[in-house]
Write a structure and sequence with these properties.
The complex is a heterotrimer of chains A (about 325), B (about 775) and C (about 110). Chain B is mainly alpha-helical. In chain B, about 60% of the residues lie in helices and about 5% in strands. The N and C termini of chain C lie far apart (about 55 Å). The chains are: A alpha+beta (about 325), B mainly alpha (about 775), C mainly alpha (about 110).
Chain lengths: ~325, ~775, ~110
């Protein structure tokens, strides 16, 4: 029953999404071109003084002019009337101002687009982000609320998959795959094993806590939520150009001699090669250290989880006694 | 003598006089329990006897020869300085002893009478289990008294002063198992303390007045008697004190109040009658012969001070007279043997102070000496009587109403008692006659400057009445105790005391008989030698300061003779009157009178003029209320409840708070961690980590270098800095990047054309701070 | 408002990471079962990783990816040892409720 419900909700969500309608930024938008003079002036006035001055013929303002199609009547070409003009202005602080201008040149509305993170500010990417964000958060909530251990583990796995998708959106391809392989694939499997060992149902999921503990903890977390969201919501990228587009390739040093770099390589951002070059280049020592750490963890895990009395000792003893 | 010679003759054995009894005291008090009885006796009696010998040797040896050779400078006597005791600021005091003619008299009396009483005590305290402590205390007392008398300066005298007060307390309350006796001891100490406090005040005054004025070393003040007496200091006593009378008056009165406490004058005499709770040898030694005379001694020692202020003398004489009269009055109705003697002591001390108050120092010391002998004899005799009564099973050994007829049963005691009573009544040729007569004559004839002219005669008249009373009640006592027939079983079967008790009695009585002849009266035509006056002359002052007139009594021979006769007659009539009423025992006449008109007077006398009751109401009760109040408020509430319990309560609260956190539940610890983390966030949120944004500047050549300080933290690190260097009020544009504002931490400008403005734009809080500064080009440092 | 919804920028990823982190914290504080607590810890580590990657994208520094990799490795090690402890505890007590593991109190 819940499954049907969840599918239904998803479909409705997408429909609503489409119905509400993103700003008409479909690919059939009119091409960007230079602005008519009066429109440009009007836009500048509206945005002044944020708009930088033109230098050497380069103008940061582009217009998409929506016209009705031109019709030919009786051999007379009627140019299509300008219906709407959308001016895009790249501002100096990295934002893009989208100005709706009437055909007469009067500014109808101004709104600002944030840096284009995904290479194109399509609403599809936004949808993808929200879906996977919901999956991650939903999985996390599953973990902390389910009484059934297996359900909790499954929720965790779902959360990790969502996070992997988020990594993809951030152009961290290698990390996304590693996340799925190691986290969802290995660690959660380990959890599943242990869940199978501890196959007791839980009596009471929530630990009993006094009012003071609840009060303090609740207040602290509430405050942290509010503060963190407020703080992090204000983070702005320092470099507008980099943020506006897909990440450029990484320039990395691939070969050294005598502490001097003899060969540089250029690899895609977030790719295996780039991460690998860094891992085995600058991050070689951490890499080696982490391998020792993993060895320690393995040995430690075995040492801790091993049962205290084993039958292997008995035969050795009898053999020794027999020999004596 | 006013001119003091500062030639101190050194003596190296003075210190042994007080030291020997102190050593004896130490041995007896520390080891006494483990020593055999004879050893205790030997140590204590030996110590005092040895001291007596050393004293006599010192006096009759070196001092006497010095006196004979130079009578004037013998006033300085011998000094022994042990070491510098206190040396602080402008005050220097050495532990030093001084033997001059005045202290010679005192030490002879103290050691001699002391030895006799020690011997007497061996018999009296024979049955007491704590006898070793008793002898230890007696020795301690003797040592303290000798320190007091031999002191060369006031602080050392004060040591002795306090010491005798302490020993008085220890000895009065010797039988402390009895609550009343212990209380009596405490009362003595407390009343003494009041006197001691005033003594200290007087001492401080003297120091303050003289600290820069005496000879040897100008930067030190000292309370040496020699220095206090020097003519350089004389004027200091005459300065006005707090706009009132002379300083000498204030200092002398304070010191006299101290003497009142010690010598049981009005109004601080209340401890002496109660002090009879102590063993009789104690009463004899301390409260008859020695301690109570310390006050008189002190006044005579400071004769020069008192002579500087006739006001003080007036006070001394008046208090002495009133005390003599009041004590005599109170003695009439007493029925306890020792109480009568106690009041008589107070009264006689009054006599001595009258003598001192009229400038008649010699008479005071004379009476002191004679009184020591006959009063000690009286007390020891009383002890003998009480010892006998107790032996026969009397429950109240001191009640004279149960005695009578003891002349037949205790012959030796009787004889000595009789002689002493004759002496105290002032019958020739016994000692009391000469000394009392000298006091009376001196009071009659003296005219101190500043007194009412006939005041001396008034004093004489009052003393005469007191002398009459003295004779009357003393002989009432005698008749009731020894005359008539025994009125109770113990009295009928009493027997004489052992030799250890009677021999001292005999010796004392002998002295009481003859000692009067050292001070024969002064006639102009017949020169009778007044040995004592000559002896004491160097030590006491003979002139009024600053008038410089001689303290002298105008009395012709005839007057002197008549006065002597009157005194004799008064004494005799007192005896006669007592015989009349009490010759054969308790008087029925008196009893009838008492029930009749004399009732109130009799009551007043019996209740000691209600002094104790008045003191109780005025001082003791309010003090008790105050003490109780303080106990309830300060002790119970403030200290116990608030401070002690309160702090425990607070600690408990903190403990409970901590206990909440340490219950072993890790998740609770994590709550603490999360809470702490949130707190850190909160703190950085609230506090302005970005302290006032500002910029510094530096002049390098003709370039002005500006450096922005946007503040700490993330907000400072990511802040954008805009400048306005050209003074147009707008943010300057970046010349390198067209269309953008200049955003730099460090800028350089050539020349300076006006105030510089800097904006700090905070990316996170979206706030902008503007700082404008006008730079003073003359100051080329990076001043903010 | 719609800007926030449609124009995904760095704040979105950072807030997502913060939310995941706080959900993990709540899980650690509230749940009784040790396994759930361990999973919440993993959640917190993941949130940290997301933040790391976001900032690496912001500043253009690829070495943060290496850091994230190390974090994953450490998380794996910690999870394994933690699970071993849970198993050992379960073996003795037959349950893994952390509020019963309070003998540190004494």
């Amino acid at each position: 029953m819940t499954r049907i419900l969840s599918v239904l909700l998803a479909v409705l969500g997408i429909a609503a999404f489409g119905a509400i309608g993103a700003p008409a930024r479909a690919d059939d938008a009119p091409p960007a071109a230079a602005c008519p003079r009066e429109i440009e002036l009007g836009v500048r006035n509206a945005l002044s003084p944020a708009v930088p001055a033109t230098t050497a013929g380069q103008t940061p303002i582009t217009c998409r002019i929506a016209k009705t199609p031109s019709r030919t009547e009786n051999g007379v070409v009627n140019a299509g009337a300008i219906q709407a003009v959308t001016a895009e202005v790249a501002l100096s602080d990295g934002r893009v101002a989208i100005v709706e201008v009437s055909p007469a040149g009067k500014v109808l509305s101004v709104h600002y687009a944030h840096s284009d993170l995904s290479g194109s500010s399509s609403p599809l990417m936004a949808l993808v982000f929200w879906i996977f964000a919901l999956v991650s958060v939903g999985g996390a909530v599953f973990v902390i609320t389910r009484r059934n251990l297996v359900a909790a583990v499954m929720g965790m796995v779902g959360s990790f998959l969502g996070i992997a998708a988020i990594y993809m959106m951030l152009y961290a391809q290698f990390l996304a795959v590693v996340q799925m392989l190691v986290y969802a694939g290995a660690i959660m499997v380990l959890f599943v094993f242990v869940v199978m060992i501890l196959n007791r149902p839980e009596d009471e999921p929530v630990a009993p806590a006094g009012r003071i503990g609840q009060g303090l903890g609740g207040a602290a977390i509430l405050y942290l939520v509010v503060r963190l969201i407020w703080l992090l919501g204000r983070v702005e990228p320092p470099n507008a150009e980099l943020a506006a587009a897909a990440p450029p390739p990484v320039e990395q040093c691939v070969d050294w001699q005598n502490h001097a770099c003899v060969q540089m390589g250029s690899y895609d951002w977030g790719s295996v090669r780039s991460v690998g070059t860094d891992l085995f280049g600058a991050g070689l020592f951490p890499f080696e250290a982490i391998s020792i750490l993993l060895l320690l963890a393995v040995v430690g895990a075995i040492a801790i989880a091993r049962p205290l009395h084993t039958d292997d000792d008995a035969p050795a003893k009898t053999r020794a006694e027999g020999a004596a | 003598m006013e001119q003091a010679s500062h030639t101190f003759l050194e003596s190296s054995s003075l210190v042994w006089i007080p030291l020997l009894p102190l050593i004896g005291a130490f041995i007896n008090l520390v080891f006494g329990r483990r020593m055999p009885r004879w050893a205790v006796y030997a140590v204590s009696i030996g110590a005092v006897a040895l001291a007596c010998l050393v004293a006599f040797y010192q006096v009759f040896g070196p001092l006497l020869s010095t006196f004979r050779a130079e009578p004037e400078t013998a006033g300085s006597g011998f000094t022994q300085i042990l070491y510098t005791w206190i040396e602080v600021g402008a005050f220097k005091s050495q532990l030093a002893f001084r033997l001059d003619t005045l202290s010679a008299v005192m030490i002879m009396i103290v050691t001699f009478v002391g030895t006799l009483i020690h011997i007497y005590s061996t018999g009296y305290m024979a049955h007491d289990p704590r006898y070793s402590a008793f002898f230890g205390y007696l020795n301690l007392f003797t040592g303290s008294m000798l320190i007091l008398v031999l002191a060369a300066n006031m602080p050392v005298m004060f040591i002795g002063w306090e010491g005798v007060g302490l020993c008085s307390f220890l000895l009065i309350g010797f039988w402390y198992e009895n609550e009343a006796f212990a209380t009596a001891g405490r009362k003595a100490f407390v009343v003494n303390r009041i006197g001691d406090f005033c003594f200290l005040l007087g001492m401080f005054l003297l120091f303050w007045a003289t600290k820069t004025k005496f000879g040897a070393s100008p930067e030190f003040g000292s309370l040496d008697f020699a220095n206090l007496r020097s003519p350089a200091v004389g004027p200091a006593y005459l300065e006005t004190f707090w706009g009132g009378d002379r300083l000498a008056a204030a200092a002398a009165i304070f010191l006299f109040i101290g003497a009142c406490g010690k010598s049981a004058q009005l109004p601080l005499f209340v401890w002496l009658p109660d002090a009879m709770a102590g063993p009789t040898p104690v009463s004899a030694l301390i409260h008859a012969a020695t301690m109570v005379t310390a006050g008189v001694y002190m006044v005579c020692r400071l004769s020069f001070l008192f002579a500087s202020s006739t006001t003080a003398m007036f006070v001394v004489a008046t208090v002495g007279l009133l005390t003599a009269l009041a004590a005599a009055f109170m003695a009439f109705a007493q029925t306890d043997l020792k109480k009568v003697l106690a009041y008589s002591t107070v009264s006689q001390l009054g006599f001595m102070f009258v003598a001192a108050g009229t400038g008649n120092w010699t008479a005071a010391i004379f009476h002191l000496g004679t009184h020591a002998f006959f009063k000690a004899c009286l007390f020891l005799g009383a002890g003998s009587v009480m010892h006998a009564m107790e032996h026969e099973g009397s429950a109240t050994p001191g009640d004279i109403m149960t005695m009578g007829g003891l002349r037949k049963r205790l012959p030796l005691t009787h004889i000595t008692f009789l002689i002493s009573c004759l002496a105290i009544a002032g019958i020739i040729p016994f000692a009391g006659f000469f000394s009392k007569d000298e006091i009376l004559g001196g009071a009659f004839g003296v005219e101190p400057p500043g007194w009412i002219v006939w005041y001396g005669k008034l004093l004489w008249a009052g003393l005469l009445i007191a002398a009459l009373g003295t004779a009357f009640y003393m002989w009432r006592l005698y008749f009731l105790v020894f005359a008539g027939e025994g009125r109770s079983e113990p009295a009928k079967h009493a027997h004489e005391s052992p030799l250890t008790m009677t021999v001292p009695l005999i010796i004392l009585a002998g002295f009481a008989s003859v000692i009067g002849f050292v001070g024969l009266p002064h006639f102009e035509h017949v020169h009778l030698p007044h040995i004592l006056a000559d002896w004491l002359e160097p030590a006491v002052t003979a002139k009024w300061n600053p008038e410089g007139t001689e303290i002298e009594r105008h009395a012709s021979d005839a007057t002197t003779a008549v006065l002597m006769l009157i005194a004799l007659l008064v004494g005799a009539s007192g005896i006669a009157g007592a015989y009349l009423f009490y010759g054969r025992g308790p008087s029925k006449t008196v009893a009838k009178l008492v029930e009749g008109g004399l009732g109130p007077i009799y009551n007043a006398s019996k209740h000691k003029l209600w002094f104790d009751e008045v003191y109780d109401a005025i001082f003791v009760r309010p003090f008790k209320v105050l003490a109780r109040g303080l106990f309830e408020v300060v002790d119970r509430f403030v200290i116990d409840t608030v401070a002690v319990n309160g702090s425990a309560f607070v600690v408990g609260i903190f403990g409970r708070m901590s206990r909440w956190f340490q219950n072993g539940n890790v998740q609770r610890y994590l709550v603490g961690v999360v809470f702490g983390g949130a707190l850190v966030f909160l703190v950085t949120d609230i506090s302005d980590c970005r302290h006032a944004a500002t910029f510094e500047y530096k002049l390098v050549g003709n370039q002005l270098e500006l450096h922005a300080e946007p503040g700490d933290g993330v907000e400072g690190a990511t802040a954008k800095i805009y400048w306005d260097l050209d003074g147009d009020g707008e943010k300057d544009k970046d010349p390198a990047k067209p269309g953008e504002l200049l955003d730099k931490r460090d800028v350089t400008m050539a020349g300076y054309s006006g105030p510089i403005t800097m904006w700090v734009a905070d990316p996170i809080t979206r706030k902008e701070v503007k700082v404008t500064k006008t730079i003073d080009l003359n100051v080329s440092k990076g001043a903010k | 408002m719609s800007n926030l919804l449609w124009n995904i920028g760095y704040p979105h990823f950072l807030v997502l990471a913060a939310v995941l982190f706080l959900i993990g914290v709540v899980g650690v504080l509230v749940r009784r079962n040790a396994l759930i607590i361990l999973m919440s810890v993993e959640l917190m580590l993941n949130a940290a990783n997301v933040t790391l990657v976001t900032f690496s994208r912001m500043w253009g520094d690829i070495s943060a990816h290496t850091f994230a990799l190390i974090v994953i490795a450490v998380a794996a090690a910690e999870a394994s040892v933690g699970l071993a402890i849970v198993v050992a505890v379960f073996r003795g007590r037959r349950n893994v409720e952390v509020d019963r593991l309070n003998t540190l109190r004494h």
